[in-house]
From TrEMBL:
PANTHER family: TRANSPOSASE, PUTATIVE-RELATED (PTHR42648), TRANSPOSON TY4-P GAG-POL POLYPROTEIN (PTHR42648:SF11). This is Integrase catalytic domain-containing protein. GO terms for biological process: DNA integration; DNA recombination. InterPro entries: GAG-pre-integrase_dom, Integrase_cat-core, Retrotran_Ty1/copia-like, RNaseH-like_sf, RNaseH_sf, SH3_retrovirus. Residues 175-353 form the Integrase catalytic domain. The lineage of its organism: Eukaryota, Metazoa, Ecdysozoa, Arthropoda, Hexapoda. One of its GO terms (molecular function) is RNA-directed DNA polymerase activity.
Length: 585
C-alpha cells in the first residue's frame, strides 16, 4: 500500500509534451507511472502498437480503418464487453497456465485490467443533467447551463457533483474532431439578407423516405438552419425553389443574396435562371478560400454529429438518419449560438422566447392515443411508436410505426418511455457509432477539398460562451465533442482537481535492476551481466545437446541470414524474477 503526499504539475523536458497537470506525488514509488485513463482525460490520445506507445493531441488525431473491438472506461478501467470463449480456452489450457485460470473464471465481462472494480455497481438514479443532455441531442454542458439559467423556459436539472459519468456517443464523436478557426465575417442585418447553402451526401443507406442527400440552408442573420432531403443531387433546384416560396410567404420578406460553393447542383441553368428571375444575388465561395462557405459547413458538421450521437444512443435503425438529422436541426435552432451572443436562432427568427418543456429523447418508445373514431371495438386505446422529433407546423410529435417505418404519423397526445433509452447499457446497442453514418463526417470532410474546409471555429463551439469569472469547468464527459474545445480556454491547472482512481494497475518496475537488455552488448554491461552470461551459456549448450547445427564454409552465392540474441526475464505469478532467459534467433 503506497500513500501519496499530494498533487502537483510536472514539467517535462519534451518540446511537444511538456506539461502534465494533477500529478500524484508518491514518495514510495521508485518509478514514475502514467495512467492512460488520466492522460486521455486531458485531451490526449494514446495509441499502443507493437513497437511503441504514441501520444497525440486530440485535435489533430484522425482514425481510419476498421475497429475490431472497443473497451469503454468505467471508473478508470477500460472494460471489453465480451464473453470468454470457454471451448477455446480449454483447448489451449494445457499449453498455458494462465489460460487454465481463465477456464475456471466464468466472467461475463472481461476487463483489460484485471483489478476488480467494486464501485461499478452503483444504484441507478435518474440523472436529470444527462437526461437533458440526451434530449437536446448531446448538447455541451455550457450551452445546457445557459438554457437552464433563463435563455429558454421549461428546462431544469440539478448540476451533478460527480463528473465521472461519460457519455459514450460524445466521447466517440470526439475522434473525428477537426479544429475550426474563428470566423471574422460580419453577421447580416436582417432575416433573409443572406442565405448559406450546401449539399451533403450521398449517404450509404437511403433514409426510409429514400433520401440520399440533404440540402442545408442557413439564414445568416438568425443562424436558423433549414434542412431538405433529396433523392438525388438534381433535386436541389426543385427543393430550393419550394423553399423560397415557403419562406417568402411565411416572412413576407425577400431573399437578397445566396452563397454556396460552385458545386454543379448550385450552378445549373435552371437554378441560375430562377435566382436571376427573383433578383437574388449570387455569391460563390472561391476554392481554397477557407473563410467563405464556413457557416453552412459548420452547420452541416453540427447536424451530422448530433445525428450520429442520437442514432447511436437510441439504437434506432440507421435508415432513420433523415429523421434524426431533422431533429438535430430543430435542436440546433434552439441552442445558444455564440455568433448571436448566445441567443437562440429560433428566438431571433420568431422574436419569441423558446420553451423546451416538450423536448424528449430522440428514438425513445412512445405511446400515442388512437382516436376513438379510428379504433375498432377491441383495438388498444394507444399504440406503440418510436419518437422521431417535432412537427414545426402543428406543435405535435412525429412518430414512426416500427411495423411501417416509411410512414410518419403526427400526434399530440403522446406518452414517452425515455427510461428505455437511459437504462440501456452500451453493450446492448446493436451497432458501433462508426457504422451509423460511415460516410457522414469523414466522408463529408474528405469529399470536399481539404483546403476548402473552413478553418473556422466550429458551429457548436460558436454556441458556447466563456462564462467570465465563473469557476472553470471540470472535464465532465457531458460536453459534446465540439463543446469539449471550451475546456482548453482554461489553463489545465486551474481546473477543479479530478479524483484519481484508487488503484494503479501497472507493475512498478525499477529500470536499472530488472529491465531486459535489447542487445548482446547491453546484456553484458548490465548489473545482471552474470545472470545473462549464464543464460547465454545455457542456450548454447542446448544447441549442442540437440545438435542444432553443423559448421560449413561460407557459401559465396547465397545471402547470409543474421542471428540475434533476445533476452527475457521470466516472472512468477507474484511478479518476482524467476529466471533469466537468452534465446538466439
Ligand atoms: Zn452525449
Amino acid at each position: 500500500m503506497l500513500t501519496s503526499a499530494g498533487f502537483g504539475d510536472v514539467k517535462l523536458m519534451n518540446d511537444n509534451y511538456s506539461h502534465i497537470s494533477d500529478v500524484l506525488h508518491v514518495p514510495g514509488l521508485s518509478t514514475n507511472l502514467l495512467s492512460v485513463n488520466s492522460i486521455v482525460n486531458k485531451d490526449t490520445i494514446v495509441l499502443f502498437t507493437k513497437d511503441c506507445c504514441k501520444l497525440y493531441d486530440s485535435d489533430e488525431f484522425q482514425v481510419r480503418g476498421k475497429v475490431l473491438a472497443k473497451a469503454y472506461p468505467e471508473n478508470g478501467i477500460y472494460c471489453l464487453n465480451t464473453k470468454v470463449n470457454m471451448t477455446q480456452s480449454a483447448n489451449t489450457a494445457t499449453k498455458d497456465k494462465i489460460n487454465t485460470k481463465k477456464k475456471n473464471h466464468k466472467c461475463e465481462k472481461s476487463c483489460i485490467n484485471t483489478v476488480k472494480n467494486e464501485q461499478v455497481a452503483s444504484t441507478q438514479q435518474v440523472d436529470e443533467q444527462l437526461l437533458w443532455h440526451r434530449r437536446l441531442g448531446h448538447l455541451n454542458r455550457v450551452s445546457m447551463r445557459l438554457l437552464k439559467k433563463g435563455l429558454a423556459s421549461g428546462i431544469d436539472f440539478q448540476e451533478q457533483e460527480d463528473q465521472s459519468k461519460k457519455c459514450v456517443p460524445c466521447l466517440e464523436g470526439k475522434m473525428t474532431k477537426k479544429p475550426f478557426l474563428q470566423s471574422k465575417n460580419k453577421r447580416s442585418k436582417r432575416i433573409l439578407d443572406l442565405l448559406h447553402l450546401d449539399l451533403v451526401g450521398p449517404f450509404e443507406v437511403p433514409s426510409y423516405g429514400n433520401a440520399k442527400y440533404f440540402l442545408t440552408i442557413v439564414d445568416d442573420h438568425s443562424r436558423k438552419v433549414f434542412i431538405r432531403f433529396l433523392k438525388q443531387k438534381g433535386d436541389t433546384y426543385e427543393a430550393f425553389k419550394e423553399f423560397i416560396k415557403m419562406i417568402e410567404t411565411e416572412t413576407g420578406l425577400t431573399i437578397k443574396t445566396v452563397r454556396s460553393d460552385n458545386g454543379g447542383e448550385f450552378c445549373g441553368k435552371l437554378f441560375n435562371e430562377m435566382l436571376k428571375q427573383k433578383g437574388i444575388k449570387r455569391e460563390f465561395s472561391v476554392p481554397y478560400n477557407p473563410q467563405q462557405n464556413g457557416t453552412a459547413e459548420r452547420a452541416n458538421r453540427s447536424i451530422l454529429e448530433k445525428t450520429r450521437c442520437m442514432l447511436y444512443d437510441s439504437g434506432c435503425n440507421k435508415r432513420y438518419w433523415a429523421e434524426a438529422a431533422q431533429t438535430a436541426v430543430y435542436l440546433l435552432n434552439r441552442s445558444p449560438h455564440k455568433k448571436l451572443k448566445n441567443q437562440l436562432p429560433e428566438e431571433i427568427w420568431t422574436g419569441k422566447k423558446i420553451d423546451l418543456s416538450h423536448i424528449k429523447i430522440f428514438g425513445c418508445p412512445a405511446y400515442a392515443h388512437v382516436p376513438s373514431q379510428k379504433r375498432q371495438k377491441l383495438d388498444a386505446v394507444s399504440k406503440k411508436y418510436i419518437f422521431m422529433g417535432y412537427s414545426e407546423e402543428s406543435k405535435a410529435y412525429r412518430l414512426s410505426d416500427p411495423r411501417n417505418p416509411s410512414q410518419i404519423i403526427v400526434a399530440r397526445d403522446v406518452e414517452f418511455l425515455e427510461e428505455e433509452i437511459t437504462n440501456k447499457k452500451e453493450s446492448e446497442k446493436g451497432f458501433q457509432l462508426k457504422d451509423i453514418l460511415p460516410m457522414s463526417l469523414n466522408f463529408y470532410l474528405d469529399s470536399h477539398n481539404e483546403a476548402m474546409i473552413p478553418h473556422e471555429q466550429n458551429h457548436e463551439e460558436e454556441q458556447v460562451q466563456n462564462e467570465g469569472n465563473e469557476v472553470p469547468l471540470e472535464p465532465d464527459g457531458l460536453q459534446q465533442l465540439q463543446g469539449n474545445l471550451e475546456e482548453r480556454r482554461y489553463p489545465l491547472r486551474n481546473r477543479k482537481q479530478k479524483e484519481f482512481p484508487d488503484f494503479v494497475t501497472y507493475s512498478a518496475m525499477h529500470k536499472d535492476e530488472e529491465s531486459e537488455p535489447v542487445t548482446y552488448k547491453e546484456a553484458l554491461s548490465s548489473s545482471d551481466k552474470n545472470k545473462w552470461k549464464e543464460a547465454i551459456k545455457k542456450e548454447l549448450e542446448a544447441f549442442q545437446t540437440n545438435e542444432a547445427w553443423t559448421i560449413v564454409d561460407r557459401p559465396s552465392n547465397k545471402p547470409i541470414v543474421k542471428s540475434k540474441w533476445v533476452f527475457k526475464i521470466k516472472r512468477d505469478a507474484e511478479g518476482n524474477v524467476a529466471c533469466h532467459r537468452a534465446c538466439l534467433v
